Amino acid sequence: MYFIDADRVRKVYAEGGRKHTVAIEELTLQVAENEFISIVGPSGCGKSTFLLLVAGLERVTDGRLLIEGQPVNGPDPLRSIVFQEYLLFPWKTVRGNIEFGLELKKIPKKKRRNISSEYIRLVGLTGFENRYPHELSGGMKQRVAIARALVNRPKVILLDEPFGSLDALTREGLQTELLRIWLEAKCTVIFVTHSISEAVYLSDKVAVMSKRPGRIKETVAIDLPRPRTRDVFISPEFREYERYLKEIVWEDL
Ligand SMILES: Nc1ncnc2c1ncn2[C@@H]1O[C@H](COP(=O)(O)OP(=O)(O)OP(=O)(O)O)[C@@H](O)[C@H]1O
Ligand SMILES: [Mg+2]
């Protein structure tokens, strides 16, 4: 049994009347527990849609989507999602944002504090607990969003171009941070990105989607040793993965 098992998944968005969009068709993908998988593919091919289906925020139209053998029937705190735009509560501090999910679960204040402090440390925000989102840089906001996603100890974390709006240096820093966080937090990651080199650097597997209606064209196992440092970017093996993946992606542009 696969941890996440998508079998010929189809997603049609109805938009009233006869108008509808087939976002995903015949999408088949398996993900193992604690695996880090990235999804790349042309704009509009259905990457975000797939994450929403796994999150349970959208319903599968046809096909089968199982997590630990169970069909996805709606959202679950064991699956959390981080979007490109930092969706933080502007009226809550860093700590308040991170503790939000714990408040919903009625976890008492003292325990909330301990848990949030742990995740604040994990994402490198110690000392910034009482700042508000408008007082943070883009990279820091995204760290808060990641901590907030991790605080319920999800088994699956879905990241939708989380570093897309950051400058190159901040992005590189956060990629390395994310690998460290993933190793420590031990969860399954599905990471959507437009950057093939980012996908190769981070992932155990990179799945390439076709243009809309999206399906998985090919899945490439990234056989580079871990822990990975940024030196890997200049290795011939890395370059070869990058070249090969670009070729597959470009067929659809
Ligand atoms: N709520 C919605 N209602 C109707 N159509 C939608 C909805 N959400 C997405 N779509 C359509 O479904 C298709 C896939 O969209 P999706 O956002 O999943 O693509 P994407 O691969 O994430 O694109 P990008 O790389 O630009 O983020 C697009 O044609 C989009 O217009
Ligand atoms: Mg998208």
Feature tags:
alpha/beta, Rossmann fold, 2 domains, four-stranded antiparallel β-sheet, 10 strands, 24% strand, binds magnesium ion, ABC_transporter-like_ATP-bd
Helix/strand layout:
Layout: E1 4-14, E2 20-31, E3 36-40, H1 47-55, E4 62-67, E5 70-71, E6 79-82, H2 94-104, H3 109-122, H4 138-150, E7 156-160, H5 168-185, E8 188-192, H6 196-202, E9 205-209, E10 216-221, H7 236-250
Parallel strand pairs: 3-8, 3-9, 6-7, 7-8
Antiparallel strand pairs: 1-2, 1-4, 4-5, 9-10
Helix pairs in contact: 2-3, 2-4, 3-4, 6-7
The protein binds adenosine-5'-triphosphate and magnesium ion (MG).
Please characterize this protein's 3D structure.
This protein has 253 residues and is α/β, with parallel strands linked by helices. The protein folds into two domains: 4-78 and 155-250, P-loop containing nucleotide triphosphate hydrolases (Rossmann fold), CATH 3.40.50.300; 89-153, no CATH class. The chain has helices spanning 47-55, 94-104, 109-122, 138-150, 168-185, 196-202, 236-250, and strands spanning 4-14, 20-31, 36-40, 62-67, 70-71, 79-82, 156-160, 188-192, 205-209, 216-221. The strands form two sheets. A six-stranded mixed β-sheet has the order 6-7-8-3-9-10, with helices on both faces. It is globular, with a radius of gyration of 18 Å. The model has no long low-confidence stretch (mean pLDDT 95). Adenosine-5'-triphosphate (ATP) is lined by residues 13, 15, 21, 23, 43-49, 212. The site of magnesium ion has 3 residues, from helix 1.
